[in-house]
Amino acid sequence: MRKEIKFSSYRKVPILLTNTGNSLQLNDSSVIISAVKTYLISRRKSLDEIVTFYPAMKAVNDQGKEVTEYENKYWLMLDETETQQVYPIKEMLVEEIKWRKWVDDWLVHLISPNVYRTPREALASFDYIVREGKFGTMEGFFAKYVGALAMFFIGKRLKSRHHLQDNVREDLYEAADDWVKAIGKHRLFMGGSQPNLADLAVYGVLRVMEGLEAFDDMMTHTKIQPWYHRMETTIKEAVITNQHQLHLPV
């Protein structure tokens, strides 16, 4: 909720707050992922230093609105040896950047028009949000009904802004199948035997729809389900492994 990020001049989520010596705020999901991944690989650099490689810039978008953009946000800030270890073939880096950018420029814009496609779907989406969120009785009531109505109309506006088809499901289906086609028949993930940051970006966006009609329709009408389930399994296994290494309860 807005009150939870009132400390920040950056008004979008996610926001990552760290305490690695100095209190540090990272904005923008792609920047957060790139910075943290760089830190995990290149421990010689501090997170404070790494963040300076992703400077914020003010720009004006096509609608004449001022927005914040970040330089280099799809790049890992590694030296030549580290880069070779992560991307032994140059095309792997080019492909990963291309599809991470595709997620931000296209895929993410398909979510709201699809989950708020009809008043019924908008209400179901906010019912899920209220059920999973920390809302009081009255707060939840207004969030569900007023929010659903508002997002239904916003979804229509976004549909027009991003030039989506009359049936926005078709754009979602095409995007899902484009992603599966890009991976091809001989790879489990775009990263090969293990996910790369493009896999993670696509999974993160699509996971938002879990439990909603749009997600079920996508799973039924596209070829993305096997890849999605592989991502689920791989992430769960990684979480369990990390918890064991840190001696945390699973």
From TrEMBL:
InterPro entries: Glutathione-S-Trfase_C_sf, PGES2_C
CDD domains named in the record: GST_C_mPGES2
Domain of life, per lineage: Eukaryota
Coiled coil segments of this chain: none
GO molecular function: prostaglandin-E synthase activity
Signal peptide residues on this chain, from the entry's feature table: none
A GO cellular component entry from the record: mitochondrion
Name of protein: Prostaglandin E synthase 2
